[in-house]
Fold PPE family protein.
Amino acid sequence: MVPPAMVRANRVQTTVLKAINWFGQFSTRIADKEADYEQMWFQDALVMENYWEAVQEAIQSTSHFEDPPEMADDYDEAWMLNTVFDYHNENAKEEVIHLVPDVNKERGPIELVTKVDKEGTIRLVYDGEPTFSYKEHPKF
């Protein structure tokens, strides 16, 4: 690969020669500098092509990764991101938290019921089905 300083020097020299070439006396030298510059481009392109080929070989020799197992679908991710839990260990009460209405446009809002009994066990009921039970107050 041609060092960037050499390319820059070529461009500066060519620019200076063009600036003072009033009578065409430097036309041959300018043409030589332009030819040198094209040769630099060719060398750099050749290096990059070789690099690309080496990368392609490395990619081909790399074993393919298996896709990770599906952990949650888009619906569950939206549920996790848009739900706010408000726990009350004192005076166990049932509380209904509505999710953002557009979480699932087909079904509309979904209810999440939080129940805390006197022993401090938290039970979540998600859309009518028990989902989660936790003995101690979780720290989020």
About this structure: Confidence is low (pLDDT under 50) at residues 81-104.
